[in-house]
Each structure stands twice: as structure tokens, then as C-alpha cells.
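Annex B. Sample input.
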Amino acid sequence: MLPIQVIDSFLLNYEIGQALLLVFALGTLGLLGLGSKKVLSLHFAAFGLIFLITPQAINSRIYLFLGLALLVVAPMLFTTADD
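Annex B, continued. Sample output.
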């Protein structure tokens, strides 16, 4: 377990959108190993909502558009999934 000071000193250099994007990318890489498009689409939808509801006062607007794009892609990916 990392001490809270290490996490805090890391996050001070980045804005919340960049930290969420890192978690999104790492989660996506982890889910690719499962091979399930439905789980991947649920991951996209969840992070789309997270990017949308993150307050824009502490986040740049580009992450709002990323959230909208993820919310458009997620249902299409879910419906085309075979498993």
C-alpha cells in the first residue's frame, strides 16, 4: 500500500482529467485480456459518465467531449458484441 503523500505528490502535477484518462487506459488494457466486448463497452460507458460528471471547473473541456464520444461508442460496441 502506498502512503497518501506519494499519491498526493503524484496527483499535484496533473489535473483530474489526466489522472482519469490514465486509469481509463490502464483499465482498458486490463480488460482487453478478457476478450469480452460487452465488458469493454460497460467500461467505456462508465468512464464516459465519469468524464461527463466531473466538474468542468477543475477539468478541461476536452474530457467532456471524450465522455460524450465514449457514451456514443459504448452502446454500439455492446450491441455488436457476440458474447
